[in-house]
């Protein structure tokens, strides 16, 4: 198992390298560069001066040198300067990464808390009214665009009912480290997390329902019944254990969905995380930040796939030895 | 008659096809005694597996109709609420399944799977359960029982898995075992071992076995009595020796003739004309085998064929057997067994 | 000259290692197997699951690559030919499979199934093709109308006959039958076996018949090879194998055949026990120092066994 983890981790190196090269070139392809961005709206800087600055910052060096410098810095956690915010990108990301991780983890947990029971009910009592309701909910949630749903949530619970705060990640008046601070943070998470997870349940519910329907027919389920095991135990011990496998394996891949979702959610709820920063940076052509964010999310997806592979190995004894 | 374990009376098991119910098991009555191996033999689609699942109550209730009486130790299993049935299944009444590859849970270690019926039916400490499980594994001929206890099914060979399934069925000392094609998925040498093991265990425990199989060789080696099934009915029921030395029903005789000879005579094999009708197309009045022996004229069949006791404990359905001959016997050659398409 | 000759055929798994994986030492699934099949002969290859009999068949069909050895068909090495000439040669070798339910494409009708090999090798007009397909269908005992039907509309035995019709379409010299009846009921099995015998005689076909069922093999074959752990342990005529088995593994297989006479039950059990005991005591005699089954030794003109 350890050997596998090491080997699987090593496999990430070429993946990450490829990703970074791709991003580097895409960034270079974008119109304008850091210098044009920095002096945007300052017509008093002449073209010659800009060219001089380029030369100073090595922006005219061959691509391999530039790439080497960029990736070397990135590995050390230095993504350069944000030209809009006038501060190092790393500093800009610091607090936001934490917020986004909070949001993502909470969304994932809530998604599973909702989806697994729903999938189990729908799979066990196929055709019942509960199943029909769940399937309908599932189709609706699949078809609803996240921004429409999030706006609706914001309007109903944030403005009309005023149950939850409608923006930000924490009230600035509460003191960090207190219980009140944590409580407030959680309160700020409720709406964005619910908006995200109520829509993200789709694939999990669908998968689990199908898996349970399929597993129900398996011979080993008959064996379990023939032992005199009660129906609840048959479902919880035998069927669920088998059906949950693909869900567990999918955990890593869910990260991809989360990243995409966070862009909308954070923007709508003005939640200070990476997603919102991403949109803001694109709007202001803050390319150093954009590149850093694309690199981070790309790396997150790669790590997610690796996690999936490792989890699958851990939960399924049949592929433990390879 | 205290030794009777199971009495099946007019059992009819129907499956739903396109909204209508069609019987796959059609009015079967049987008894199994203590210390007896009763074999049910027939080809696929004859209803033998449906019979086994009916006894165990394993048919999905929404698509299957099970009528009649299945009396096990004085109680009609078909009338029992599921909770009470669960107190019997896996304890007094256990089942060995056909395919050891799929009948074990792939994600549970073998030991836990054998212990499961003990969790349900016995009150044992964890240590006692493990001890008993190891003993069971030893009884079914697994020497490295400590190791196998910890293994997953995919780590074992087919023969080993079948032994595990047997150990599991024996976990709570059943008095009646239902074995559905227990050796069909196994190699010949392993099959011979498993059959011998089952026979030994049965002798020790005096349990009854209902052995479902399509293989007449397995029947000859294992059974005390044999019921031959065709199209949902028992067509012949006899002690094993009687069945092989003095088969009566046209179907039984045809089946025996269609086996490659063990003595190595390479004559043409007998071919039964036509095919087994699907249950939704089956004509349920008259002799069900009549259409496959068209050279026997209709008057020789009974209108409502019943089982006749033609010798002690030897029952045959329909009178047609009195006039039946295999084409090869009458013609003096074997070439009549032609292939006909439907 | 034999129609088919196998010389030291060796097939190894895995054939190559994956990316960044430790190279697992390859295991010989078929280990230096040699035998010959003559024109018009039915050769039975027998053994238990995992013995390498199906892999041998796949190697003859060119579906596995050889790690070592040669396969000669009519004297020409199938693995030394150019791709094109080998493809042309393979039309003389056809195969029928174990499972009639999954070996036919469910979305094609019988006409298209049977015509497929014809289209690959012969350019016939539509009328010629139809005539040929109809002839084949009738030859395997199905009615001519059935060419417009789909596999699911047939019973198992009929499907197997469709598979045989497809294999016969190109008038092959060698037919490889991999467990052709083991998925079928006894009465259907009889039908297919009779039929295979008929066409074998009619077309003077050479057949490699692979099976685990010694009863069927005895009924169908002229000569038999017994495989065990990737090696041939005994080879001989039907009489050699069933009347005078030499290798204990063969004896064990023959003894394990179910006995149809209930009277002989205890006798059979005793015999099996005896052979198993002998087998366990003598096991090391059949293996060399590295644990490999030893070479075949000639016992008579027709009979060879892996004995010292």
TrEMBL record, chain A:
Membrane topology: Multi-pass membrane protein
Coiled-coil regions listed: none
Keyword set, alphabetical order: Cell membrane, Membrane, Transmembrane, Transmembrane helix, Transport
Transmembrane segments: 101-122, 134-157, 244-269, 289-312
Example GO BP: transmembrane transport
Entry's Gene Ontology cellular component terms: plasma membrane
Domain of life: Bacteria
Pfam families cross-referenced by the UniProt entry: BPD_transp_1 (PF00528), BPD_transp_1_N (PF19300)
Record-annotated ABC transmembrane type-1 domain positions: 97-308
UniProt subcellular location: Cell membrane
Family to which this protein belongs: Belongs to the binding-protein-dependent transport system permease family.
NCBIfam families reported in the protein's UniProt record: Opp4B
The protein's name: Peptide/nickel transport system permease protein
Organism expressing this protein natively: Sporosarcina newyorkensis
Taxonomic lineage: Bacteria, Bacillati, Bacillota, Bacilli, Bacillales
TrEMBL record, chain B:
One GO cellular component term noted in the UniProt record for this chain: plasma membrane
Major location category of this protein: membrane
SMART domains found in the cross-reference section: AAA
Record's keyword terms, sorted: ATP-binding, Cell membrane, Hydrolase, Membrane, Nucleotide-binding, Transport
CDD domains named in the record: ABC_NikE_OppD_transporters (cd03257)
EC code: 3.6.3.-
UniProt topology in membrane: Peripheral membrane protein
Alphabetical list of PROSITE patterns matching this protein: ABC_TRANSPORTER_1, ABC_TRANSPORTER_2
Gene Ontology biological process terms from the UniProt entry: peptide transport
Localization per Swiss-Prot or TrEMBL: Cell membrane
Top EC class of this enzyme: hydrolase
Matching InterPro entries: AAA+_ATPase (IPR003593), ABC_Ni/Peptide_Import (IPR050388), ABC_transporter-like_ATP-bd (IPR003439), ABC_transporter-like_CS (IPR017871), Oligopep_ABC_C (IPR013563), P-loop_NTPase (IPR027417)
A single GO molecular function term of this UniProt record: ATP hydrolysis activity
Gene3D superfamilies named among the record's database cross-references: P-loop containing nucleotide triphosphate hydrolases
NCBIfam families reported in the protein's UniProt record: oligo_HPY
Similarity-based family: Belongs to the ABC transporter superfamily.
Protein name: Oligopeptide ABC superfamily ATP binding cassette transporter, ABC protein
Organism: Sporosarcina newyorkensis 2681
Lineage: Bacteria, Bacillati, Bacillota, Bacilli, Bacillales
